[in-house]
From TrEMBL:
GO terms for molecular function: 3-oxoacyl-[acyl-carrier-protein] synthase activity. The keyword Acyltransferase applies. GO terms for biological process: fatty acid biosynthetic process; secondary metabolite biosynthetic process. This is 3-oxoacyl-ACP synthase. The keyword Acyltransferase applies. Pfam families: ACP_syn_III, ACP_syn_III_C. NCBIfam families: PRK06840.1. Keywords: Acyltransferase, Transferase. Residues 107-188 form the Beta-ketoacyl-[acyl-carrier-protein] synthase III N-terminal domain. SUPFAM superfamilies: Thiolase-like (SSF53901). It comes from the Bacteria.
Length: 338
């Protein structure tokens, strides 16, 4: 049984925040923002561009691209962020309603910025376990830039957070854009390094905490996290890519394109170098920033529009999310290989 991508959708807000603006607000040199952090500009959501709403707009584009009736969708998986319109709310059911997928059932999943890879793995697994599931919609939105305090140096590595929505339609017995195997690593030693410290059961949100701005993301042990992450992060990036390729029956030399999340430029270049790839084998998202779970889908769409992916190319989507989680999934674009 093959599972293939038949629809692809991305929604991006028109508003942008430039590297110069970030530098000014954060009081850091602009060349650090542009060169080291890799941010020329990033997407910023407007007042009406809410997290799940952006997922809905992306989902409608993906459905149109797949040329299917929404009533043909069997399952909807929301893979976007928990920072959304309401704090306790099943987003996938809202998406179901808005797109008219009256025959579907829906649920949310969460693995921070690694959730898109997890969603693809789950969609394929669901189809293997239930022959009645033919078509799955994956959709997510992201606007975690709301949670960044640019005057907090502990969160400097997250100054790239942007906004947008992304969606995929995947179908059973597809003959093109076949989704092969995935690989995911999680490491609980980082599980409480990056948190929003208030608003949960440990410290409920109060007017005082709200006034103090403590509802934003923070890093509990920045130096310790940096040291531990440097020892593991890039190695785990390489490991999940290699494992995904190997499980899928491809060699590293067959890899044609890496759809990577936005991270610092030196790390992006390092991963390409390990796999003997060039700049044209990926897209560095310096004009978009890090749109969380949406990065891989955005990279895939941009690459198709720019002609960087051709029929038969082996494409690996790779992610990382605070917590910490690393994931990769391999797709062969175009018609199914013989």
């Amino acid at each position: 049984m093959n599972v293939g991508i038949t629809g692809l959708g991305v929604y991006l807000p028109k508003k942008r925040m430039t590297g110069e603006e970030i530098a000014r607000i954060a009081n850091i040199p602009v060349n650090i923002v542009k060169t080291k952090m890799g941010i020329d500009e990033k997407t910023i959501a407007g007042n009406d561009e809410h997290t799940v709403q952006m997922a809905i707009w992306a989902a409608k584009e993906a459905i149109q691209h797949a040329k299917i009736n929404p009533k043909a969708i069997d399952v909807i998986i929301y893979f976007g962020e928990e920072h959304k319109e309401y704090p306790i709310w099943t987003a996938a059911i809202k998406i179901q309603e808005e797109i008219g997928a009256t025959n579907a059932w829906a649920f949310d999943i969460q693995l921070r910025c690694g959730t898109a890879i997890l969603a693809m793995k789950l969609a394929k697994s669901l189809m293997h376990s239930d022959e009645n599931i033919q078509t799955v919609l994956l959709a997510g939105g992201y606007r975690n830039h709301d949670l960044i305090d640019y005057e907090n140096p502990r969160t400097r590595f997250m100054f790239n957070l942007g906004a947008g929505g992304g969606a995929l339609v995947v179908e059973r017995d597809a003959s093109e854009n076949i989704v092969y195997e995935s690989d995911i690593i999680t490491d609980g030693s980082f599980s409480e390094d990056v948190i929003v410290p208030v608003g949960g059961t440990k410290q409920p949100l109060t007017p005082f905490l709200l006034e103090q701005g403590l509802f934003r993301l923070d890093v509990t042990d920045p130096e310790g996290m940096k040291q531990r992450l440097e020892q593991k992060s890039l190695d785990n990036f390489i490991k999940v890519i290699r494992n995904s390729l190997m499980k899928s029956g491809f060699t590293e030399s067959q890899l044609s394109y890496l759809a990577m999340l936005h991270m610092k430029k030196s790390a992006h270049d390092y991963v390409l170098k390990v796999f003997d790839l060039q700049d044209e084998n990926s897209i560095y998202l310096s004009n978009y920033g890090h749109i969380g779970q949406i990065d891989q889908i955005l990279s895939l769409k941009l690459a198709l529009e720019e002609g960087k992916i051709k029929d038969g190319d082996v494409v690996t989507l790779v992610s990382a999310g605070i917590g910490y989680a690393w994931g990769a999934v391999t797709v062969q674009w175009g018609k199914q290989r013989g």
